[in-house]
Each structure stands twice: as structure tokens, then as C-alpha cells.
User: Fold these one by one.
Assistant:
Number 1:
Amino acid sequence: MLHIKPFALCFLAFAAVLPAQTIPPEVRFHTNLGDIDVALTPDAAPKTVANFLSYMSKGAYSNSIFHRSVPGFIIQAGGFQLINHSVVTTAQDPAVVNEFNVTNARGTIAMAKLGTDPNSATNQWFFNLNANGSNLDNQNGGFTVFGKILNSAGLAVIDKIAGLPVLNIDGNVFSATPLTNYKSGTIQDSNWVQVTSIVTIPNSIPAAFTDSASSLGTSATGIAPGQILAIYGTNIGPAAVTVATPDANGVIGTSLAGTRILFNNNPAPILFTSSGQVNVVAPYSLAGLNTVAVVVEYQGIRTGTISMPVATANPSVFTFNSGKGDAAIQHFPDYATINSNNPAQSGDILILYAEGQGAVSPAVPDGTILSSTLPVPVGKTQLLIDGQVVPTSYAGAAPGLIAGALQINFTVPQLAPGSHLIQVQVGDRLSQTGVNLQTK
């Protein structure tokens, strides 16, 4: 008999919610001459980075123009925007205190300020085209560097801007303004060198991929088809926690609050997303592959490709303590949670929840909340207590939960009172140690 009263979907969504790793923010300057990726440095200039991000978040740098170019020295922007075919001055917030700590090296971004006041920086910034430390580090309190261009492509863009001819428009602020494809006469919108927008680049690292049930990293064990994963990073999702809900057809979508996780360029069902963590179900199409290329995308901005090994199965038992301690087990027929405060006894019928069993039969679409069709693992699936195989009455998909969740029904054998190691084996792969069944 199949006994069912599954945990809520949010249990799987939030499983293994751990503190995200702190990674310095990275931003992408979209310009009409190419993108410039910059790693900001809040450790060196926290107030300056906060000031920049404040302007950025309210759109003060959208359609900003580069109004000054000094080849071999700097290109400058941030103070003026192109709005309705006119150049307007960007509103300024209060000045930020000077935080000079890092030399003005080639490819760094620094704050512009008044020549007589070291604490006068507001919204204007510049890119250093060359090593300008001997000059800018030693005047007016030093010019505060708050980031650095990440790659050669970004350096090529600032060099391209610096290579444009400049026009003396007013003999003052716009005395050395770079223009593109300008011949003479009225300056058109397309002639200005614009920063159309600045957006946050999501950060993600291979070590931040874990199994959502066990909290163990997947870089060594691999990712199995249908495995429920937790991915950690910075700005990989919205600031507000968002949990998926099935659509009218009972399917979890592959895009949630602007977040997508791509496996070999195919988006996968997302259970939960936030700025620091995304829980996703690996697609069943991974079956038979040796490796998979994973990309994290938020608001259309993608991380680099992360190559991960693929496993046939990677079973893990859900717990209430990040992969350790009492297993996620319910008692039948009252569906009470089994733990040290409510231990099981010999003859009890229990329901265990796990995942990572790999390919299933019959095949089901990714993201499906299962009801009538209940696939079972392709690999031989066994339950072990204290290393001994225990007969099961059912081992397959958990009704009411997403494809990838595994339900195992069993009767408690004769066991001494206390804590017993409980594991799931699929093929030759065993679930994590340190997971317990409590008995009396």
C-alpha cells in the first residue's frame, strides 16, 4: 500500500538554506561601444561603493554620457545624461568622504572631485587608461579607487572610447568630449558615447553548488538527473525571497523572479530564489552525460559557464538540520514527525523522504508535480538501517511533490532503543552519513 501525506513543496524549496558566501559585487557597464565589467571594492572604499550603487540603483547612470576624454590618462562620465535628445545635469546626492586606499592603476575606476576639496566626490567617476598613481595618488588627498575592470574586453572598450576624436563644445566642462561618427553640425543622439545602463553581474562559484538535502558539495560527487540542488552566490536572484508555485497544469516553471539556471543552455525548474541562494531541480536530460555546463542567469545577466560532473545517482536523505541529524520521516497513519521527541517502535509504518535517485521510469517532464503517474528509480533502490538492508513497500516518486523527490515506505524492524543510521542506496551510491532514525 502506498501511504502518502507529503511535506509541503516549500520544505524542498527551502531545504538546506545556508548563509551565502560574501563575494564583492560586480557590475556591467552597457555602453554603445561595448560592455565594461567591473569588480567593485567595498573592502577598500565602502562608502564610495555604497554611493555609486545608490546612484546606479535609481537609474542616475542610465544614458549617462562620457563628457571628458584625455587619451593616455582618463575617460570621465557620471555627471550628465541624455534625456529626450538633450544633455541634462544629473542630480547630485551629498558628497561622499574621500577613501583613498588603492593606487590609480590602469583599468581602475575612481571618483572625480573638485580640485580644492578631497571630500567633494558625488556622482562623477572616471576610468584610468594608464597607471596614473604617480599623479592621482598624490594630490587632493588621493583619488578614491573603488573598482577594477575585470577583463581584457572591458579594457578594449575604454581604449576604444579614448581613441575617438574629441570636440571642444563649450570650452569648459565639455572641452574634450568624445564623439562617435561625428562630422559637423548638430550633435545627434547617436554621436554621444553613452552608458545606456549599469547592471549587477550575478556571481556564482563551483564550490557553492550543493545537494539540497545533504548540503554536501557536488563538485566531486557530481549532479544526478532530477537532483534537487542549492546554488549559492551574490545577486543571483531578487532581494526578496521568492518560492515557486505550480502553474495551472501542475508544473514548476524554469524562470522565477528573473532567475534562470541553465544546464547545457536548457533552463531547469526553480523551486526557490533569492539574492544569495537558488534551489533548482537538475533536468532529466543529464542522463548518460559525463559533464554538464551550468550557467546562472539573473535579469538577463549570466555568469560564466561552470562545468560540473554528472552522476547516475546521488541519493540524499532530507533532514531538518542541513543534512544531519533526524531524517525527514513521518509515521503512518497519523503522519506525525519521527524524531528524538517522538521515536518510532518496531512494527511502525514510516515514510522517508529523499532525492537524488537519478533517472526514473516511466519518464516524466521536468518540473511536474506528480499525482497519477508515479515513476520509480531506474537504479536498484534499497533502504539501509545501521548498514543492513530493510524491506520497503514502496520506493518511488512522492505524490504531490515535484519530480525528483523520492518517497520510501517501510516497516520498522526489531531495533534497540536509540539512534540508528538510516541511508538510501541507489545502484552503488549511498546517501550521506550522520542521518538518524530514532526508536524506542
Note: Residues 65 and 194 are 4 Å apart (CA to CA).
Number 2:
Amino acid sequence: MENPLNKKTTFGNLVLVAAIMLLFGFFVGINGKNIWAEVAPKLGAYVSDDLDFSSVQKTYEVLDNNFDGHLDKELLIEGAKRGLVAAAGDNYTIYMNRSEAEEFNKDLSGDVGAGIGVELGLRNERVVVLRVLQDNPAMRAGVRAGDVFLEVDGENVENQSSDEIAQKVRGAVGANVTVKFLRGEEAVTLTMMREKINNLSLVVEYDNDIAIIRISRFDEDTGKLMGEAAKSIIERDAKKVILDLRGNGGGYVSAAQDVLSYWLDNQVVLEEKGRWTGDSSLKSSAGKAKLADFETVVLVDGGTASASEIVAGALKEYGKATLVGTKTFGKGSVQKTVDIGKGEMLKITIAKWFTPKGVNLNEGGLEPDEVVDLTVDDLNANRDPQLDRAKQL
């Protein structure tokens, strides 16, 4: 695939040009001399023939000569970059400064730092453990789903938010944290040593002969984990599969392709059309479709987006799965991340993607075959009618 940033008028060049122009614009307010025309050729900066940046420099001159206050030059440059990219008018094309880029990469890889390995949420206005992550301190200490947080290191946290409690539970690797939970009518106090959280993107559980595969994101390890799950499913002689993609906002398209390869054998899983990338199709791998004949139900909701919709859409259109839940998010575009230096990054929409039958999901989303809602009352009562219906089907 051709790198769209190699094109003359694309965002990478524009950001560089805008930043350099602002930098040299600082001297104009001092001596009135426009040195951009002299310096740009020496730097090898390319300015598109149909873009005139002189108004940007003029804007800075007026601001610098009239503003009653301090102008932070670094913030001005960052603002120019951010505004330039935002003007593309695409919600998924964004500029990220160093800290934003670091957080983005952590989210994509599931890096949540050091802690005890639990997912928190609000139930009946109390912060509880929603899920205990495999192979982490909480699981080894005996923490259970449904445990209510009462204290962290002796501090009462009953009136704090899940985010506040999560911050208190996290800390340095090797440091202990003591948490007091309410379990039913009993108070349980557990001390755990914080570790770097092993936050797998894919886990598989079993309910009799049903394998339940939960994929929280599509990262670099998802394909390998899917292969291990498929092997486990066959060895345990499971008969049916539930693929839970609820709340999965996407990730790498290549990881979605890997997952689909266990149901689809060398078949088109998406079509891609882009200004710079051209038209292309992506196929599943050949010879890996070990789950092709398994009865499969896919769970989806409004948080199922992007790569998750690629998986759900392909399985639905090839008749490999029944979709249960609520309408998906509706994101039918492909993004690429590009490092632009100093830890900064651009995330750029480079193409639209279409299902094997030619449907683009932007703002439309996938309609499930069977609509089943999951209400707040269901969550508070620890009910999951969507999963229950998937098991029935």
C-alpha cells in the first residue's frame, strides 16, 4: 500500500510547513522582515501551488503586535498543527501531541500500567468488580466479580467514582495495595502486590459445549490468541461458538483478518477504496478455517466499531454467524498513524472500507439479526439477556 503522506499536498507536509512558518513568523513581529521566502528553499520545504500560507503569518503578526499578554510559542505551533488537521473535517483524522500519542498507543496495546487486574464499573450506584482478568494479582488473591469496593489502603472509597478508585488501585510494580470489599453481607480484605497488568485482548471461556470468545480490542497479539483459542475449542470438543464483540472499538485490520480466517477460507473480508491507496480487497488466509462449520453467534452493541464491524459484517454476509444485540457504531473508514517527530503523531483516514457485499457502514452500522437490549436494570441485577439469547440460539 502506498504511503499517502508521500503525496505533495498531504497533512504531513502541511503540518511541517505551518509549524516552520509560525516559527519564522516570530521574527517578523520584531524586525518586520519576511524571511520565510529566503529560508524555505534552504530547508527543502515544499509548499503546494494551490495553498497560500501568507495569511497564517499575517495572523501571527497581528496577534503578536497587539495581544496584551504572553504568547506561548510552543502552544501556538501545536495549535496551528491541530487546527490544520481538524480543518480536514474528518472526526477520525486527528493530530496528537506527545502525551496524547503515548496514551493512544497504550490504549491500542491494552497497556494499563501496574495494578491488580480488574475491570471496574458502577452497579446500583456502587463501584464493583465487573471482571477479574486472567493471570493477574486479583485472580490469584481470590477477588470475584461482583465484589464492592469499600476501602483502598484504609481510605473509604464508597463515595468515589470508578476512575478515582482505579487510580488508587494502580501504582508502582512491586508495591502492595490492600483493598476491602463487600461480598454479599461479608467484608473481605485482600492484600495484593501490584504487577504490570496482563490485559489480553482475547479470552475464551466455556459453558458446557459452548465456547465463549471475548475480544476486547484487535491488537498485535489477537491473531495468535485466536489460534490458541481455536485449538482449545477443538480439543475440548465444544460444538458451538459465541463471539462477543460488545464494546470492542476496533484496532488493527490485520488482526480482524486473522480472526476471520478461522471461519472464512481465502475469501474477501473487505473492500477498500481510497484516494491514494486505490481500490483493493483483503482476503482471509487459506487453510485456517477450523471453525467454519461451528454454529456461531456474534454479540454486538453500539460500542462495536471499525475492525469489530469488519468481523461481524463478513461473518453475517457469508452466513457464518447470527448477530445478536443492538446496532453497531457505524465506522466504515480506515486510518493510518504516522510519526511526525518529537513523539507527535497524525492519525489519518486513508480509505473507506466496504463489506464483501459492498456496504459501507459509516454512520449506518450493522443491524443485528435479532435485537436484544441490555438495560441498566439488567446490569444492576447482573443479568445479561444478550448472552442468554445467544446461548439459546
Note: The chain has twelve helices and 19 strands.
Number 3:
Amino acid sequence: MLHLAQVKKKDLEGKVMLQLLAQQKAEYAWAILADESGVLWVDAEGFNEGTLVLIDLSSSQHVQRIEDATYWVLDIIKHYLGTGITPALLQEEVQRAEQWRQSLTLQSQELGRRTLELEARRDQIQELEENLKREKQKFELMVHQFKADLNGSPQEDASTETE
């Protein structure tokens, strides 16, 4: 795992004491480490006290690679600080994204509420359609019976008159 460290001391044997300052958590995410979080003694000649270095540590805290961090720091300045990206701007973007997320949540809830209302209205319409069908059937039955009664009554009267 990649760390940013500072050379604190050099001894006569060519070893340097490194104070771990930050640890890479993801490609563009770093976490500042507490002062007492880590000190390493490593064989690394050519680094003076105060120099910032990038070190790649294995999971067992063995140094796999060490290099001067000057170009890395300059690259950060070029890409992020040179373009006007400030912590305040980033905070504004975070707030804007949070407001957007909340707005989408409210819209989603409203859409869900409207969907439930439409489903309830559809159910009511289906129930009304079924009631209308039943009423229509009752009406048609009544009309049929009425016609049958009308057709049957004169015949009965005619048959009773001829007798």
C-alpha cells in the first residue's frame, strides 16, 4: 500500500527514519495518519532529512519501493490546485450533489405516491365497469321480461275472449 512519508533522521549506516504521514485508500483517496501512527527505519541512501518520499509497503510493513515524492506533489499541484479546484469548491460540489440526491429522492417518492393513486383509481374504474355490466344485465333482463309480459298479455286476453 502506498504511503507518503517524511525522512526524519539519517544514521551513519545509511538507514533513514521515515515518519508515515498519509496512506492511500483508493486511487484518488488518501487518509492523513496520526503522528504516532508509524515510524520505519529503512535502508535508503540519497534522501536528506525533511524529504518527502512515497513508499510502497507490503501488508507485513516491508518496503517494496521508495521514491522521492517531489514529482508526485508537483503533479497534484498541476492537476488540482493549478485548475482552481479549492476545498471550498469541492465542498460546494458535495453540497450540490447532496441536494440533487435529496431532490431525486423526493421525486421518486412523489412518483411512487402517484403510481399508488393511479392503481387505486384503476381499481375503482374496474369495479365501476363491473357494476355497470351487472346493472346492464339486470336492465336487459328486466327489458326482456317486460317485453315477454307485453307479448304474453294480449295473447292471454285474446284467448280468454274467444272462449
Note: The chain has a mean pLDDT of 85.
Number 4:
Amino acid sequence: MCDKYFTLHDLPQEDRPRERLKEVGVDNLSIQELLALVVEKGRKGKSVLSVSQNLLARFGNLAKMKEASIEELQEVDGIGFATACKLKAALKLGEKALSKHNKFDYQITTPKDVFELLKNDMGNKKKEHFKILSLTTRKKLISIDDISIGILDSSLAHPREIFKPAIQNSAASIILVHNHPSGDPTPSKDDIKMTERLIEAGKIIGIEIDDHVIISDNLFASLRSDPKTSRLWRK
């Protein structure tokens, strides 16, 4: 068995991803080649392109690869801790490039605006993520803050944690957002109970809750727009 670790330079020049990127542009590289640029080196007896192909074979697509843990990435032959960290960072950068998190003048007037803002960040999560959007009086985004990760239960959504970033940002109102990994954005009884509790807390604090939007892979639901739950805002 060969003891040499194969790098990008060991590939034939016409197959080297860096040279191909320079020659044909990044848009014309395959996913395997793009991964090879991040991975950079193979293992003993296996090229970097082979290791990249193993990654794709193990996870199936980039979305599943992005959700994989460091430990799961390291299960792929040829992927060590440092390379797994590089992969996580590269995939996260790609996610952030598609999001509008840095557009603090982004105006939110509809539930669809919330969905478009966060679908790439939350739509494919395996666990429930709960965030709040803090808004100005003109409904422009001030910040997006993570509140919790895991099973979202009404008893765990304490007003202190939820309103703290809104108070710090002098927000006029907030929007509650969480995802349903099941793919069905229909609000649960706990979702409704929690929303009702937080609306009442917001009245006391003086920060209105504009909506509670639930996101799935390609669907969303707005509790304020739903006739069954819009009553919560009319109390």
C-alpha cells in the first residue's frame, strides 16, 4: 500500500480543481471538485477527489452534509478533525451568503418576508430552533437572535429570555420564529399556548409581538394570519 498522502498537486494538471477554477470559472466546477478544494488532501493511497466522492456518497447531498456533526464527518475515510472543521465553516459561509442576516434595513411586512429571510437557515434543521426578530417602528430588522435549540415547549419559552435581546435593541416589536423538522408547519397546542403567553407578556413590557411564524423545508405558517389562531391578537 502506498504511504503517500495525495494532495491537489498529485492530480494530473487538467484535473486539478484550482487550475480548472481559474480556467473555466467556479460555476463550472462539480460539487466533487468544490469539496476537493476545501478538503485539499486525500489519504494514503486515495486522491483528494476520491475522498470528496466518499463525502458525497456518505451524506447524499450538501444539505445533509451541512447538518452533520464534526464526529459524523470524521467517520468518512480521509476526513480528520481539521478538515471536518473546514467543511463545517465552508458550508456555514455558503448558508450565510444566501441569507439576509446582514441587511439590517430589511423590512418585514408579511410572513413570507420572514420565510424568505430564514428558510435557508432553518428549513432543513433536524432539531427545533427558536429565534426572534427584533424590529423598529417601521418594521425594519434590527437583529436576529437565537433563543433555544431542541424541543420547543411552552414551559421552556420564558419571557425573560425572549424579550431580553429585544429590550437591549430598543425594539418596537418582535416576531417569533421556529421550525418544524417534521416538514409540517401546522402550529401545535404548545405553539399556540406559548404564543398566547408571550403576547400577554409583551403587553406588560410594551413590546408587541407581530406574529409567530413556523418554518419547514418549503412551507410556512403564520399564527396571526390563520383564522384559528389570529384571535390571540384580539384579546
Note: The mean pLDDT is 85.
